Model the fold of this input.
Amino acid sequence: MRPGAALQAREPAFSLPLRVYYQDTDAGGVVYHSRYLDFLERARYEWLREAGFGLRKLAEELKVIFVVRSLSIEFRRPARLDDLLHVTVRLDQVGRSRVPVAQEVKRDHEVLAQARVELACVDVLTLKPASLPSELRRAIIG
Amino acid sequence: MRPGAALQAREPAFSLPLRVYYQDTDAGGVVYHSRYLDFLERARYEWLREAGFGLRKLAEELKVIFVVRSLSIEFRRPARLDDLLHVTVRLDQVGRSRVPVAQEVKRDHEVLAQARVELACVDVLTLKPASLPSELRRAIIG
Amino acid sequence: MRPGAALQAREPAFSLPLRVYYQDTDAGGVVYHSRYLDFLERARYEWLREAGFGLRKLAEELKVIFVVRSLSIEFRRPARLDDLLHVTVRLDQVGRSRVPVAQEVKRDHEVLAQARVELACVDVLTLKPASLPSELRRAIIG
Amino acid sequence: MRPGAALQAREPAFSLPLRVYYQDTDAGGVVYHSRYLDFLERARYEWLREAGFGLRKLAEELKVIFVVRSLSIEFRRPARLDDLLHVTVRLDQVGRSRVPVAQEVKRDHEVLAQARVELACVDVLTLKPASLPSELRRAIIG
Done:
C-alpha cells in the first residue's frame, strides 16, 4: 500500500476557498509563482484557526510560532484572474517540533499546484525549535 | 448639509471581511502600509462581483478594466496579525469613465485607514478611457 | 514664488534606480499599483542609508522607526516589465516628528507617478511619536 | 566524484546583491518565506540580462518567456531587516526547453537559503514548451 493512501482515507483535507485578484497575477497573465506560497500560508492558518488556534493565541498564549523549514512545489497548470481556487491542507507524520503538511491548490477538481511544506514549531522569542504544545498536537492530529 | 451625508444615508457601503496573516505584516509587527492597497482592491472587486461583474466578465465581455488613477490614504491605527478587518466600498459621484470610491479599513467599529481611490474605466486593449458600460453603471449606481 | 520652487532649487532629489520584474506586474501587463509604494519605500531607505542611517541603526541605536501616516499618489503613465525606473526622494518641511517627502517614479525624464508621503518618526517599542533624533535631523536637512 | 562538483568548478555563479527592506519582512521579524522566491527571480533575470537577454527582448524578439515548473527550497537561517544579501544563480544540465538552476541566498559567506528551480522555456502566447532559442542557449551555457 502506498504510504499516502491510508492517510488520505483517514484524514480529509481542510480546504480554503480563495479568489484570484490582479494583485496575485503577473504580466504573463497568470498567478505569479511565489503567490502560491502566500495562498498555502493562508490555508494553513485557517486550518489552525478552525482547530481553535489563531495566530495570536499561538504566539501570545502558547509562545510558539511556525516557521517554514523547507518546501517543494510543482506548478502544473496556471491559475488565472478571477479563478476561484481551493487550497487544501493535509497533515503528514508529525514529529516533536516538525509539522509536515501536504497542500494542493485546486480549481474545481483540477490540481494546479502541489506542495509539501515542512513546518517547524519554534519558540516565539528565541526562534529555536519547541515541542508542539500538547493541546495543539491533540487538536490537529485528532 | 454636508455633501457626503445624503450619500451615506442613501448608499450603504459594501463590506468585505479579511483576516490578517504573516504575509500582510512587516518587522514592525503591524500590517505593512502598501498591503492596505491590496486589501482595498479585494474589496472593490468583491463589490463589483456582488453587482454581477466579475473581473473576467468585465475584461472579456465588456472589454474594460479599471485602473487606479490616483489615491490618497490616511493610516490612523495599525492593523495587526490575526485581526479580522472589514474593508468597505462606497461609491462617490461617477463620471463618464471616472469612478471615485471612498473606502475604509475597519476593526470592529474602529477605522484603521481611510482612503479615496479614483478609478478610471479603460479599454482592456488600448488602456484608453472608456465610457462605463451602461449595464455596469445601472448595477453600481442603482 | 511657488512654495516648492525654492525647495526644488536648493535640494536636489536623491534617486534610486530600479528594474521592473514579473513580480512587480499584474495581468494588465503593467506594474501593479500598490507596488509603487514598495518602490517608494526602497528609495526612502536608500536615501536614509546614504545619509548614514540604515534601518538597523535607526531601530537599534536611535530607537526610532518611520511609519507612514498618510500618502497620496497620482499614477500618470504605466511602468512596464523590464523598465529601468528612477525613484526620487525630496524632503519637505520637517516638523518635530513629521517628515513629509515628495517622491517621483520616473522612466528617463518621464514622470510615471508622483507621490507625497507623510512619515512620522515613532519610538520603536511604543510606536508613539518621537522627536526626530538631532543627528538624523542634521544629516537629512543638511 | 559528486555530480555537482564538475559543474561547480566549471561554472562560477552569477550573484546579485539585494538589500532587505520592511516590505520583505513579516511580524516574526525576519524575511517572509515567499519573498525569497521573489529574490531568486530577480537574480535569474539579472543573470539573463547580463547574458544579453532582458525580459522584453525574450518576450518580444525571441517570443519566449520562462515559467517556473517546480522548485524546492530549504530555509536554513533567517534573513533580517537591513541585511545585504547575495543571490546566486548556477545553471544545471539544460534540456531542450527545461532550464534547471541552483540558487542560493547568502549573507556574507553564510548560506541562508538554498533552492533548486526548474524553469521551462515556453512560447509567449501559447505558454506551451518551446525550444530554448539557440542564441540564448549559447549565451548561458557558454
Remarks:
- The domain at 3-141 of chain C is CATH 3.10.129.10 (Thiol Ester Dehydrase; Chain A).
- The mean pLDDT of chain C is 91.
- The first strand of chain C starts at residue 14 and ends at 19.
